[in-house]
Amino acid sequence: MFDVLWTPWRMQYVEKAGKEEGKCVFCELPNMDDEEALILYRGKYNYVVLNAFPYNTGHLMIVPYRHVSDVTEMDDAEILEMVKLFKRSVEVLRREYRPEGINAGWNLGRAAGAGIPGHLHLHVVPRWCGDANFMTIISRTKVLPEALNETWRRLRKGFEELGS
């Protein structure tokens, strides 16, 4: 039997993603204030940002500054930094939240589940046994134990403490 992680609350995000012609949220975020944009860390080629519609507390994404839709479009420096930021993200999440597991991955194309298929991003999702419950399925409500701004403060501090 398979476990299923339903995410019906993401529908409002998926439905409006990419609707504004010519605008890419991942291209716009770096122009904003870090706290407002939920940016945790800025590298040379990529940045780390909290997902505004998280599957779980601490759900973050690593996003290249350059607008690319596929990993094959990235050069070696971009992909190397992305993998290093993934490692750092795992370290910070483990230190701050002690998850029992972590899901990570790219959704390449809309058919693969990409909400924003035009701009590649790597999801990093901390997981705990039993983190999906009846509230999500029955009442279409996601229960997160911490507000996004508090998660941002905790993880931002974690990235700062690990240094660059």
From TrEMBL:
Keywords noted in UniProt: Nucleotide-binding
The keyword Transferase belongs to this UniProt entry's keyword annotation: no
One MF annotation (Gene Ontology) recorded for this entry: nucleotide binding
HIT domain mapped to chain residues: 25-134
Motif (Histidine triad motif): 119-123
Domain of life: Archaea
One Pfam short name: HIT
Keyword Phosphoprotein set for record: no
PANTHER family attached to this UniProt entry: AP-4-A PHOSPHORYLASE, HIT FAMILY HYDROLASE
This protein's name: Histidine triad (HIT) protein
Protein source organism: Ignicoccus hospitalis (strain KIN4/I / DSM 18386 / JCM 14125)
Organism taxonomic ancestry: Archaea, Thermoproteota, Thermoprotei, Desulfurococcales, Desulfurococcaceae
